[in-house]
Amino acid sequence: MMNTTLKLLAQQLQLSISTVSRALKDHPDISKATKEKVHALANSLDYEPNAYAIQLRTQSSKIFGVIVPAIANLFYDSFIAAIEEESRKNGYALMILQSSNNTENELNNLKIFRQTRVSGVFACLSAHAQNLEVYEKMSDRDIPVVFFDIVPKDNKYTKVRMADERCAIIAAEKIIERGAKHVLAIFGDPALSISQKRKQAFQQFMEKYAPKTHCTFVNTNSSAEAEAAFDKHYSKTQKFDTVFAMTDEILIGVMKSIQAHNIKVPKEIGVISISNGFIPSLYHPVISYVETSGYELGKLAFVQMLANIKGGKTLSELTVDARFVEGKSM
Amino acid sequence: MMNTTLKLLAQQLQLSISTVSRALKDHPDISKATKEKVHALANSLDYEPNAYAIQLRTQSSKIFGVIVPAIANLFYDSFIAAIEEESRKNGYALMILQSSNNTENELNNLKIFRQTRVSGVFACLSAHAQNLEVYEKMSDRDIPVVFFDIVPKDNKYTKVRMADERCAIIAAEKIIERGAKHVLAIFGDPALSISQKRKQAFQQFMEKYAPKTHCTFVNTNSSAEAEAAFDKHYSKTQKFDTVFAMTDEILIGVMKSIQAHNIKVPKEIGVISISNGFIPSLYHPVISYVETSGYELGKLAFVQMLANIKGGKTLSELTVDARFVEGKSM
DNA sequence: AAATTTACCGCAAACGTTTGCAAAAATGAA
DNA sequence: TTCATTTTTGCAAACGTTTGCGGTAAATTT
């Protein structure tokens, strides 16, 4: 089936292409009668403007690029869901690419985005350090970049992230409220700034407001490691009354061990984590957590992007607030 | 910064645009010397072909559209991850839109895809019945559509899905192997064909090969309902020795109840589910399940898409095979 | 009735490519 | 040297829009 174009409409109506074009976008120069005729025919032939021709002409696509380490991830998928919603509302579509935490992929993805002339890029840096000059190249092309979650240090970039310190502090507060005496606090990859921030904030807060509480700190890189760590530290002689898990991954490991040993929550041990809420809801009793919502982060990122597109650069770093969600595990 | 175009390159090299274009794509008409010069300059000015101009000229974009009910979903996100990988390998990019199980969204999304002139669409129908003429419209425009997971009945469409019957039968086999006497089998929304298929296959198999085993069948629409159903049926007087969960959602509900009642798995009750594996791995003991891999399904869907694009229509329905993954819950 | 304004509409260029065809240059054969 | 090939390059149209500018006819003002 032939695609209907402006030209086709124009021929059928004995009008010029420009008139048809203007009629379709309600230009004041065109009479009401003509507009109606044009719209009628356009509908019956269901005309769809050719996005590529428009972009070529106007030099602006209505597509945003998104780079995440992995789509199949509880946090990132809700982030994506959020910007997808907002994008659609604002007439943008999304192009999503995953880096798999691999710098080479990240580079390739950026290249695709450049070629596609996306209107903007949402980027989560792949885990370990890399140079950011590819991102500079985007800026050179006037393509705004909003970094999220794992962001560069330099604050010439636009970035949104979780309020990591706040998260950790809220968790610490709740742990103190509980009157914990011995806490096992498990954090993630020590090389990641997110782990460092959370750990530091947590530790400082505990030392200041509950100096008598004994804290054991552990770093683990996976669910299995967290399980092993909990196993190891949870001996008869030195029992913890509270455990803190910095991420869902860690929580999963901890809970496995807790279930294996048939430890009673919250009676024998209190559990608290930082999470977006899905994993904590899986257990009985439901785990208490400090919420870090990928969804919220997505909304925030989108606001930043729009600001960026509308009026020049916004060089700020925004964070989404944390809040405690009460479960039954504390 | 100015975008480098063919025209710019041509001017600088004192060549025509067509020569530059051909040189860049290694056309045999162009001399080696010229090619080298062109490539050199193109590199140093890092020329990126304008995808929109190409599409406009060639009438073919290198983009696939994907419609899923929700991105934030254990099954769909792995499906997406799979086609993203394949797409990138084959020089395609992905545009992902979520329908939120809402027909209106689905329609809008399709419209965007038509406007973007995507090369193909991967579509998962939103849960409840709808008319498929929008999809016909895609075919009219020569845009192939590969349906996945929730697919239309009519087999003039190209579709890939899980081997639902096989899944259910494998589960039934394992339940029989276990020597179950009383089983509680919980299925999903009875309006969905996936629920019907699985239930029917399961029931038939049990009746045929283990007529003495007593099965109770329940349909639930959510995790919470599944939890309630298990609660209700698990009374002192009528204990089940095995429970079968048709989906992750159901498994989550069941496990909550099991944890709440502190029922011992697999001693007091055996648990088996159909899943992609993530949720079953969260518990202790690890739950046995029949694997339905979104990832595998994605790979299969991509093969179908490519076949569709290359050589005409392939009107087949393909299914990805199921396999049992042994946990410790049976 | 002439002059001015207003309301509509069309022309044509431009966006950056690709590609059929023709033209020019280089090479070989006679 | 001249003609026939072969190799290399350029011309120009086309893809479907948008938009500045200019034009015509009707409506309004003098």
Which helices and strands appear, and what pairs or packs with what?
The structure is a homodimer of 330-residue chains.
Chain A lengths: L5 H8 L3 H8 L7 H13 L6 H8 L4 E6 L5 H16 L3 E6 L4 H14 L3 E4 L9 H8 L4 E4 L9 E5 L1 H14 L4 E6 L5 H17 L4 E6 L3 H11 L8 E4 L2 H13 L9 E6 L12 E4 L2 H17 L6 E4 L2 E3 L5
Parallel strand pairs in A: 1-2, 1-3, 3-4, 4-5, 5-11, 6-7, 6-8, 8-9, 9-10
Antiparallel strand pairs in A: 10-12
Helix pairs in contact in A: 1-2, 2-3, 5-12, 8-9, 10-11
Chain A binds a DNA duplex (30 and 30 nucleotides) through helix 2 and helix 4.
Description:
- Two copies of one chain form a homodimer.
- By secondary structure, chain A is α/β, with parallel strands linked by helices.
- Chain A has three domains: 6-49, no CATH class; 61-161 and 295-321, Response regulator (Rossmann fold), CATH 3.40.50.2300; 164-291, Rossmann fold, CATH 3.40.50.2300.
- Chain A has twelve helices and twelve strands.
- In chain A, the strands form two sheets. In chain A, strands 2-1-3-4-5-11 form a six-stranded parallel β-sheet, with helices on both faces. In chain A, strands 7-6-8-9-10-12 form a six-stranded mixed β-sheet, with helices on both faces.
- Chain A starts with 5 loop residues before the first helix and ends in a 5-residue tail after the last strand.
- The model of chain A has no long low-confidence stretch (mean pLDDT 89).
- At the A-B interface, helix 4, helix 5, strand 2, helix 6 and helix 11 of A face helix 4, helix 5, strand 2, helix 6 and helix 11 of B.
- Chain A binds a DNA duplex (30 and 30 nucleotides) through residues 3, 5-7, 15-19, 21-22, 25, 28-31, 34, 49-50, 52-59.
